[in-house]
Amino acid sequence: MCDVAGGTTAESGDEMVALASAARQLRVRPRPAEPDVMRAELRRLRQVIDLVELRFAMVAADFAETEPGDWGGYVSPIQAMRQDCGMTGSAAATAICVGSEAPSIPTSVAALEDGRLGFAHLAVLASTTRTLRESSISGEVDEQPLLDQALAHGLQRFRHDCAHVRHAHDSAAFLAEQREQMSYRYLELHGGEGGTLFLKGFFDPEAAATIRTALDPLARRSGAGDLRGRWQRYGDALRELSTHGLDTGQLPSAGGQRPHLNVTTTVETLQGLPGAPAGMLEHAGPVAAATVQRLACDASIARVVMGPDSVVTDVGRAHRLPSAPTRRALLVRDGGCVWPGCDRPASWTSAHHLEHWGHGGATSLDNLVLLCLRHHTMLHEGVWQLVRGKHGAWIAISPLPGVQHRARPPSPRDA
Asked: Rounded to an integer, what distance in angstroms lies between the CA atom of residue 89 and that of residue 284?
């Protein structure tokens, strides 16, 4: 981390020592005060931090102008700051930019010094003025219009203000920047233990907007009993979107077949018998019998008979459960997921066997209901129950005692 007691002169060294001492004293604070008092303290502390950030930026800009031999063996001043000060390369570059631009934006610097402007706003303003000046014929930029917007708008909107200014100033350069962002797009998939998956990626603004527009409707809470956190709902939304893509059959075929999940299981696993092995899910590995039963609720089933020496002796013809007429009747009757508060349409659901066909349940209309992916999973792996109440309404019962959610009543057609 940075040595706050360091300095280029004895005077600056004394200032850093005094500042470090004052910072240590600030760590000792009384018990929490009233909210208004804490808000006022937060504002004062933020102003002090902004002033220290400005001082850091000016020193960083001076350091960036030194000779490579002064960088302590690092290839750039940014790398030296990353290692010496424990900061990211982006934060180091921002500090250098602000310090370098400070002499050309004195009014904005003064606004920070008197507490009217934050360091984050100043950093965006400095970056914008540098871009405009470098592409300007005269090399001069009027900071006042940008400062007025910075004082009037929050940080996110001010970023948009600056983007509009940069585009108006040089649309070709703005487009080149956008193309560069597009070239950085990537998505890494790293397998973890037990068939899990870690995702890491970067997307340009348009791709990011597309992904969020597709996920946001699926990531909303589904009913009053939905206690999932925001990121868990986004994870479930990505899974649901991918499952829907497989179910619709619109993805490119591979080997003459549309992409689909492949599960290999025994009859004993489908029946949930004690001692049965786990099912095998392609690209994942062993999965629980409850997961196998859920996937088998509405799927194409092919029978493969193995001999005692593990040689295939018979392969049955694949057939789908339920049939097309039964599926159409389900769509008309249920209209969508029957779970309490769920608004997933029928096209985003699958047929659930109230009594699984592996246990002898019939694949008939009376034994089937439509459920979305999340609620189908809650029934099988989450051990919830779905039962009919009065007047044909469905009631979802939690495995936790005393928790239940009433589903919407049947449609007028059913009545």
From this structure: 37
